[in-house]
Structure formats: structure tokens, C-alpha cells
Design a protein that fits this description.
This protein is α+β, with helices and mostly antiparallel strands. The chain contains eight helices and seven strands. Strands 1-2-3-4-5-7-6 form a seven-stranded mixed β-sheet, with helices on both faces. The longest helix has 12 residues. 29% of the residues are buried.
Length: 174
């Protein structure tokens, strides 16, 4: 396996395998995303690809794409939208803005899980920066974040009423 850094153009070139990976990652518990939401990832990804500074890391093996993580650098001011307002109720705003990076998606192909791919992707992408992300409190990913030194917030509800938790990683530089 190798891990490569990718920019928005390179992630865009992976649109179809990324969508397949998304279906494999978010149809099952605790996510249970309905078909229409799984299908809509193509549009969500298109919006993600427009975000300034988007970058990611991809894990590639003999069989192709094993996993991906991507996100973007946060601006100095917190965006005034429902998600960021909800996260700011459980995480101090100064941890959410620049120089922090937001981790937006982390996905590993089910057949490649449990072999350190997720941990390696996260390390490669975050690369000792301040970072934060939002996940489901029952996701297996929480064990990865905790064992990698990320701190969980109080739980909160997103705009759809789903339970969520933020995880914050402090590099120690700020
Ligand atoms: C979360 C996810 C990325 C983990 O990928 P992975 O490659 O299996 O993770 P790793 O093998 O690197 O495991 C890292 C740590 O996570 C924890 N972990 C991961 N899978 C686990 C499992 N099935 N059971 C228990 N712990 C698990 C362990 O603490 C593990 O540390 P260890 O290797 O020291 O035991 C993967 O399960 C996934 O894609 N899930 C669906 C999508 C998702 O929930 N993404 C996160 C959204 S925020």
C-alpha cells in the first residue's frame, strides 16, 4: 500500500471510485444513510471539490483505491451556517478556525479495514496540524480518533436531528 497526497483535481478524477467507497461506508450502522442520500454524494462531493484549499490523502493498493481522507483549511472566521454554529456550541470557536484543518471525509473500503489504513490516512493528512471533525458517536472511527489523541466534545444534534460528536486534535503549536 502507498499513500499519496491529492488535490481537488486529482480527487475529482476519482469521482466514481469515491462514490462507490461512500456507498460501502455509509449504508451500514450507525450511519444507515438512505439510498437517496448515498446517491446524492456525487453532488456533495462536487460542492466539496469547490472548497478553497481542499486536499486529501489516498491509500492505494494492488486492487486500487483502499481508502481516502480529505478536508480543507479553516478560514480565520467561523462560517455562519447551521453545522458550524452547532459545532461551536460544543467546541470553542478558536479551535475550529485557522490554523485548524477540518477533516471532512474518512473512508476505508470494508475489505481493507482493521489493517491500519484509516490510521495511516489520518496521520498522513493531518500531519501534526490542529484539526477537527464531526462523526457519529457510535462510529467505530471514534476508537481510532481517541487512540490517536483526538478529544471528543459533548454530543450534539445536527440540522437533521442526528446525534453527532466533534473530535479535536491539538498539535501543541497553538
Ligand atoms: C473508521 C474507519 C475509517 C477505520 O478504518 P480502518 O482502516 O479499519 O482503521 P485502522 O485499521 O487504522 O484502525 C485504527 C484504530 O481504529 C479502531 N478500530 C477500527 N476499526 C475497528 C473495529 N472494527 N473494532 C474496534 N476498533 C476498531 C482501533 O482502535 C484501531 O486501532 P488498533 O489498530 O490499534 O486496534 C473505517 O472503519 C470506515 O471507513 N468506516 C466507515 C466510514 C466512517 O465511519 N468514517 C468516519 C466518518 S467521520
Amino acid at each position: 500500500m502507498r499513500i499519496d497526497s491529492v488535490d481537488a483535481t486529482q480527487l475529482g478524477d476519482l469521482r466514481e471510485p469515491l462514490h462507490e467507497l461512500y456507498r460501502q461506508c455509509f449504508a451500514d450502522p450507525p450511519w444507515n444513510e438512505p439510498q437517496e442520500m448515498l446517491d446524492d454524494y456525487v453532488n456533495v462531493l462536487a460542492k466539496h471539490l469547490e472548497r478553497p484549499g481542499l486536499s486529501g490523502s489516498v491509500a492505494v493498493g494492488d486492487a486500487g483505491l483502499l481508502g481516502v481522507v480529505y478536508g480543507w483549511p479553516m478560514p480565520p472566521e467561523l462560517p455562519d451556517d447551521t453545522l458550524h454554529r452547532a459545532v461551536a456550541r460544543v467546541v470553542p470557536t478558536e479551535r475550529l478556525v485557522a490554523p485548524a484543518v477540518a477533516v471532512v471525509e474518512l473512508m476505508v473500503n470494508p475489505v481493507s479495514r482493521g489493517r491500519g489504513v484509516g490510521r495511516a490516512l489520518l496521520d498522513h493528512f493531518v500531519c501534526a496540524r490542529d484539526a477537527w471533525l464531526v462523526t457519529h458517536p457510535d462510529a467505530l472511527a471514534c476508537r481510532l480518533y481517541k487512540s490517536a489523541g483526538w478529544r471528543p466534545s459533548a454530543q450534539f444534534r445536527n440540522q437533521y436531528g442526528d446525534r453527532r460528536v466533534a473530535y479535536v486534535l491539538s498539535s501543541g503549536a497553538t
